[in-house]
């Protein structure tokens, strides 16, 4: 009993540190949903241009996924956390000069650097948590960490809305009437709003990095041998390749929807629906994700995961269809409810994609992570459609994403190994 308590105390501080990391990177990632309309105004952008915020962020995840895994294997979990925190802090501090210059590409560079750091942290955190304690409790520790991450994601939109958006929207007609000097002053003031939150975020990341540096963390030794299969070996597992596609469309649809909720709300031109109030629908989306994940623990024990995926895909498709066919608060509420139905899709598609990989599991999980690039590609595609055909039509893209997820739940998940 005393030995168990000793082990618990040994792992408590590392667990708190790693879960704090998950909270802050989820919070930072979901600030982007409010940052998009803010930078659209501050840098005078189209919907397509503003959606590149997500391309910069999730593009960094795509680029860093495999190098981060290699780095952690070479340097260890602790160095992975320190490096990830340091890079993310540099990215956060880059927002200050970006705001000073008001050059959009500088903002995108800052986001890319910050996300590169978070990618290293994310690749580090989940496997490290599974090894901090008894193997039997690994899933519960991961569930707790995911819940804390979801809490950060839920808080982010409301917090960002207060910091970056106006309580009363400045009409575009007012902005159009400004003289060149007045417009420059207004836009500089808008850009300056990003300085305090990102400087504070950078400082928090530096403090956590210093705590990690001076904290004695358990050294986790990987099993000898392990999975050293090459990436090309995974191509014989068709269900895994379909699973990468499922990850692409799942991430793309979710990021695309939350990225455009505020812009969609503005399109209705309802006087009481300011940008700041519209952000509440993103908060509702993320809160329902959290609720869904908690309920998912019980749902997935009672029903086959592929059946749950089919139900969730059809339900999400129905909600987005309703959002397209209706207007105002009801339409926005439908988009928020999508968060509940997609909340447990990730663990389902991951587990189905990794089925029967055996010694190829680590390689398969690395390739699966590449599907996150959907978050970089789908929002700009929606932005282009919004600019050219109208914002309602842009939500056809998430519908296509859920059709693919339906396919994966019906047929794509089935193990089909090429000889």
From TrEMBL:
Keywords: Cell inner membrane, Cell membrane, Membrane, Sugar transport, Transmembrane, Transmembrane helix, Transport. It is a multi-pass membrane protein. The keyword Nuclease does not apply. SUPFAM superfamilies: MFS general substrate transporter (SSF103473). GO terms for molecular function: D-glucose transmembrane transporter activity; fucose:proton symporter activity; galactose transmembrane transporter activity. GO terms for biological process: D-glucose transmembrane transport. GO terms for cellular component: plasma membrane. Intake of glucose and galactose. This is MFS transporter, FHS family, L-fucose permease.
